[in-house]
């Protein structure tokens, strides 16, 4: 009797089936984790923007900035932040609320024409993930 080496077609098909089942469970979890990581990056950038706005106010005697050009040099690396969903260096949107995935917006709060605070919001894949304001 001859001794054969290797796997039969049935054994290979069972292995492929098991790998397929494992992949069908792992891929959705991976995609969900990616989305959560991107939303966490939006929150992180919103916090960096908040720190820059507060830093500007401290340097300006309690008056907040009404223009993004004042805050931009105080952001990490003194540059625009990277959109977590598109990868473009376009954040934050000054004077506008965030509305597209990964976008961060800052709107000055004015009182008698003087900026006394700000509102910052960030947008995730499908909904707003962070929104906070300072000032009255």
Summarize the structure.
The protein is 40% helix and 24% strand. With 136 residues, the protein is an alpha+beta fold. The chain is rod-shaped and about 95 Å long.
Describe the structure.
This protein is an alpha+beta fold and 136 residues long. The protein has one domain. A four-stranded mixed β-sheet has the order 3-4-5-6. It has a two-stranded antiparallel ribbon with strand order 1-2. Strand 5 and strand 6 form a beta hairpin. The chain is rod-shaped.
Helix and strand pattern: HHEEEEEE
Count of DSSP-assigned helices? 2
Spatial extent as radius of gyration: 25 Å
End-to-end separation in angstroms reads: 91 Å
Question: What characterizes the major β-sheet?
Answer: 4 strands, mixed
Overall structural class, as computed from helix and strand content, comes to alpha+beta
Characteristic terms for this protein:
single chain; 136 residues; alpha+beta; four-stranded mixed sheet; two-stranded antiparallel sheet; 40% helix; rod-shaped
Any chance you could write out the topology, listing elements then pairs?
Elements: H1 9-59, H2 68-71, E1 81-82, E2 89-91, E3 93-94, E4 104-111, E5 114-123, E6 128-134
């Amino acid at each position: 009797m001859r001794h054969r080496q290797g796997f039969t077609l049935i054994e290979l098909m069972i292995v492929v089936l098991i790998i397929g089942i494992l992949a069908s469970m792992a891929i959705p979890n991976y995609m969900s984790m990616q989305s959560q990581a991107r939303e966490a990056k939006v929150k992180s950038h919103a916090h960096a923007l908040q720190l820059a706005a507060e830093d500007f106010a401290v340097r300006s005697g309690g008056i907040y900035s009404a223009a993004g050009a004042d805050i931009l040099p105080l952001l990490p690396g003194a540059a625009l932040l990277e959109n977590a969903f598109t990868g473009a260096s376009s954040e934050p949107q000054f004077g506008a609320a965030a509305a597209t995935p990964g976008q961060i917006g800052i709107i000055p709060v004015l009182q008698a024409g003087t900026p006394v605070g700000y509102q910052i919001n960030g947008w995730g894949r499908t909904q707003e993930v962070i929104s906070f304001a300072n000032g009255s």
